[in-house]
Amino acid sequence: MDAHAPLSEPAMSALLSVGTATITTQLLSRGFRNTFLEGLFVSNPSRQRMVGEAFTMRSIPAREDIDVPAIFQDYDHPQRKGVESVQPGQVLVIDSRGKKRAASLGHILATRLRARGAAGVVTDGSLRDMEGFETLDLPTFSAGPSPTTNLAQHHVVDFQVPIACAEVAVYPGDIIVSDRDGVVCIPRHLAESVAIDSAEQERLEEFVLARIEDGKPLRGTYPPNEETMRAYWEQR
Predict the structure, then answer these.
(1) Distance between CA atoms of 106 and 131, rounded to whole angstroms?
(2) How far apart are alpha carbons 226 and 16 in whole angstroms?
(3) Rounded distance, CA 90 to CA 14, Å?
(4) pTM of the model
């Protein structure tokens, strides 16, 4: 697919309903094993589902002579410039190098992202003002909370470049999906086919599950043999 084209309506609809477990299976069948962003937790349990293209932000270790409190007065600081650049439907994905001592982002900036129509926030670092995140109407995933401002550990240097987040390669425009099981990254060129095939996989699994609930044995049912598949297609 065109890396700059929006997802089709059928693909977006599928990704808004299928599970990340299904998506990882589809990616595995295509040879992609490292797509799950491990060790991240949702802040607001009522806002677990997220689908959007990645807007990436990269940070390096802070340096004492540069990352000083006075930079809070700079509206053009790279972190704030990045936040103001996120477009509606995008997910801000922050490479914090897995460091949690200082927060990657605070509640005020996240609230601005929600106002801009962002689809969510993902960081392999921590979040500040977690009480606000717990009720924020925006899916946010992180490695946990920290009261310390980002200046103590992080310096944002780039956005919209390839990054690592939770040991997964994330490129600008990749599709980020989350649910109760966590966050996965779909390479953009695979998003359409993964979405459609995931929806089909789940329809089949619902049929199989109903048979298992009716007492059918695993053999011949899961995985489905030819007879089970024939019955599945007959009821479609």
Answers:
(1) 11
(2) 30
(3) 17
(4) 0.94
